[in-house]
Specification:
The complex is a heterodimer of chains A (111) and B (113).
Chain A lengths: L3 E4 L2 E4 L5 E7 L5 E7 L5 E8 L5 E2 L10 E5 L2 E6 L8 E7 L10 E5 L1
Parallel strand pairs in A: 2-10
Antiparallel strand pairs in A: 1-3, 3-8, 4-5, 4-9, 5-6, 7-8, 9-10
Chain B lengths: L3 E4 L2 E5 L4 E7 L6 E6 L5 E7 L5 E4 L2 E6 L4 E6 L8 E8 L8 E3 L3 E6 L1
Parallel strand pairs in B: 2-11
Antiparallel strand pairs in B: 1-3, 3-8, 4-5, 4-9, 6-7, 7-8, 9-10, 9-11
Classes of the chains: A mainly beta (111), B mainly beta (113).
Chain lengths: 111, 113
């Protein structure tokens, strides 16, 4: 099973700033996924990150707000740009596989 | 658009009792996942169900899949307090092994003495 780490584990940010979240996997994977879990809610897919191409965003999510990088087969970043309190959520990365494993998540609070 | 419904949303049950959580989904899929989430934690993978009639069991939890009915169940046998958590089902709407998951609303399970 893949071991996934995320940094930071949590952060408190001011409105209007940006935060970049890192996701590292211990093995090479083609697809990485970014999800958001708003307080008390279920998970929603933000985008799929495929190495060597632009990320594919789901309805309601745009690249200007959530730019994603995928420089190699073990690493990806998600940036939450121009943050507002509505962006306060847990952000989780996940990787493809028989059992879809998730990273530990980044808990973001925007004041 | 794939929709996934779970019920109940909240379940309070006594230790030793049995109960079932239901997961209905709207379009054909050949892969369904069950996860557990403890407060403030990430998701723990419980089961992946890959075919019609699949049944998986781990301890007091048993999951099954009926692809024709588009229904999965998570059955809890003789609940214990340690099972208190939120349980999510998720359906694969993607391609191959690269799973693009649509999650259910979650069922918050509280097991009381």
């Amino acid at each position: 099973s893949a071991v996934i780490s995320q940094k930071p584990s949590r952060d408190i940010c001011q409105r209007g700033t940006s935060l970049t979240i890192q996701c590292q996997v211990d093995s090479q994977v083609t697809m990485m996924f970014w999800y958001r879990q708003q307080p008390g809610q279920s998970l929603t897919l933000i985008a799929t990150a495929n190495q060597g191409s632009e990320a594919t965003y789901e309805s309601g999510f745009v690249i200007d707000k959530f730019p994603i990088s995928r420089p190699n087969l073990t690493f990806s970043t998600l940036t939450v740009s121009n943050m507002s309190p509505e962006d306060s959520s847990i952000y989780l990365c996940s990787v493809e596989g028989q059992r879809q494993f998730f990273g530990p998540g980044t808990r973001l609070t925007v004041l | 658009e794939l929709k996934v419904e779970q019920n109940p949303l909240f379940l309070s049950m006594q230790e030793g009792k049995n109960y079932t959580i239901y997961c209905n989904y709207s379009t054909t899929s050949d892969r369904l996942y069950w996860y557990r989430q403890d407060p403030g934690k990430s998701l723990e993978s419980l089961f992946v169900l890959l075919s019609n009639g699949a049944v998986k069991q781990e301890g007091r939890l048993m999951a099954s899949l009926d692809t024709k009915a588009r229904l999965s169940t998570l059955h809890i046998t003789a609940a214990v307090h340690d099972l208190s958590a939120t349980y999510f089902c998720a359906v694969d709407g993607g391609y191959g092994t690269a799973s693009k998951l649509t999650f259910g609303t979650g069922t918050r399970l509280q097991v009381t003495l």
